């Protein structure tokens, strides 16, 4: 069982640079066909300063931490038992290639169901840009399978 | 986007254009592993997945959510999307062909000063109709 004392556990703040090439690679990986996400000239003509960060890529940027699963070790979570249960984003403004985004990540809940067969860990992330503007928040809910 | 989607012109029950994806292959998962930065071996290493009791690799939930998100940005500009969330319901395996469907389930008038919001539910299912993920988004539209 995951110790409930980890509710409130904060990861070291992480800063990620949004790279244009990486955004294009991501667009390819998800089969994106909208040129707004592939071609910076199209993005500029649509009024954007550069390629926008797509909706779910914020989650990916957070995983660019040097040790993205380090907090699993601290909490005693075994990677092979983990499934992604739920994912929620709230958006405030777009982010773009060239931006530098800061991620503040905190474990906000730990609970179990089915008499402990399933454990749930909720982690909240706050994303701010280089101008200290709030860009988005996201909540990741992980499910840990026991047996 | 040919013409802006307007609050006054949409109705509860309206269906967004679906997104039909080719079957998920091992290459799909390898590309997503690299591009997303999610290097969890459960998605690309068959030996690891077998030892974890899953038989074979499974797709990243976030790949499915990215497909779901594309149904939204194919319909409205991304800046219109206020919230987007999903619950992952079943594992996606190699060979599964995902189709994402979305429809307007609620019109929330007067929730924002200059625009009105609609709730859109989004589902991802495979070729057998099995529900892989279900979620919703709050989207602000010009009046």
Explain this structure to me?
The complex is a heterodimer of chains A (147) and B (143). By secondary structure, chain A is an alpha+beta fold. Chain A has 4 helices and 5 strands, in the order βααααββββ. Chain A has a 5-stranded antiparallel sheet with strand order 1-3-4-5-2. In chain A, a hairpin with a 5-residue loop joins strand 4 (118-128) and strand 5. Chain A is elongated, with a radius of gyration of 17 Å. Chain B is of the alpha+beta class and 143 residues long. Chain B has a single domain (7-24, 60-142), classed as Roll (Thiol Ester Dehydrase, Chain A), CATH 3.10.129.10. Chain B has 3 helices and 5 strands, in the order βαααββββ. Chain B has a 5-stranded antiparallel sheet, covered by helices on one side. In chain B, a hairpin with a 6-residue loop joins strand 3 and strand 4 (115-125). Chain B starts with 18 loop residues before the first strand and ends with a strand. In chain B, 37% of the residues are buried. The interface between A and B is large, with 38 and 42 residues.
Question: What are the salient characteristics of this protein?
Answer:
heterodimer; A: alpha+beta; Thiol Ester Dehydrase, Chain A; five-stranded antiparallel beta sheet; B: alpha+beta; 3 helices; elongated
Helix/strand-derived category of chain B reads alpha+beta
Rg estimate of chain B, integer Å: 17 Å
How many domain regions of chain A? Answer: 1
How many DSSP-defined strands of chain B? 5
Biggest sheet character of chain A: 5 strands, antiparallel
In short:
The complex is a heterodimer of chains A (147) and B (143). Chain A is of the alpha+beta class and 147 residues long.
SSE topology sketch:
The complex is a heterodimer of chains A (147) and B (143).
Chain A: E1 14-17, H1 20-29, H2 40-45, H3 57-62, H4 70-75, E2 82-91, E3 100-113, E4 118-128, E5 134-145
Antiparallel strand pairs in A: 1-3, 2-5, 3-4, 4-5
Chain B: E1 19-23, H1 26-36, H2 46-51, H3 61-73, E2 81-88, E3 97-108, E4 115-125, E5 131-142
Antiparallel strand pairs in B: 1-3, 2-5, 3-4, 4-5
């Amino acid at each position: 069982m995951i110790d409930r004392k980890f509710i409130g556990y904060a990861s070291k703040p992480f800063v990620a640079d949004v790279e244009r090439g990486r955004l294009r690679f991501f667009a390819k990986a998800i089969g994106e066909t909208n040129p707004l996400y592939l071609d910076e000239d199209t993005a500029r003509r649509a009024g954007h300063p550069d390629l926008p960060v797509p909706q779910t890529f914020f989650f990916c940027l957070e995983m660019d931490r040097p040790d993205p699963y380090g907090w699993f070790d601290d909490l005693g979570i075994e990677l092979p038992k983990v499934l992604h249960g739920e994912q929620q984003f709230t958006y405030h403004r777009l982010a773009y290639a060239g931006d530098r985004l800061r991620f503040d990540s905190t474990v906000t809940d730990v609970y179990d169901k089915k008499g402990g067969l399933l454990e749930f860990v909720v982690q909240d992330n706050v994303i701010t840009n280089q101008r200290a503007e709030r860009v988005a928040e996201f909540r990741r809910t992980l499910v840990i399978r026991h047996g | 986007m040919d013409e802006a989607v307007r609050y006054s012109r949409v109705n509860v029950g309206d269906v967004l254009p679906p997104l039909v994806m080719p079957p998920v292959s091992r290459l799909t998962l390898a590309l997503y592993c690299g591009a997303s930065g999610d290097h969890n071996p459960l998605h690309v290493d068959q030996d690891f997945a077998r030892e974890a009791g899953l038989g074979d690799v499974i797709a990243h939930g976030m790949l499915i959510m990215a497909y779901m998100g594309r149904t939204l940005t194919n319909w409205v500009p991304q800046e219109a999307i206020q919230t987007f969330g999903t619950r992952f319901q079943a594992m996606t395996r190699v060979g599964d062909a995902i189709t994402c469907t979305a429809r307007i389930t609620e019109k929330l008038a007067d929730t924002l000063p200059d625009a009105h919001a609609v709730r859109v539910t989004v589902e991802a299912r495979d070729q057998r109709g099995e529900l892989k993920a279900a979620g919703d988004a709050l989207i602000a539209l010009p009046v």
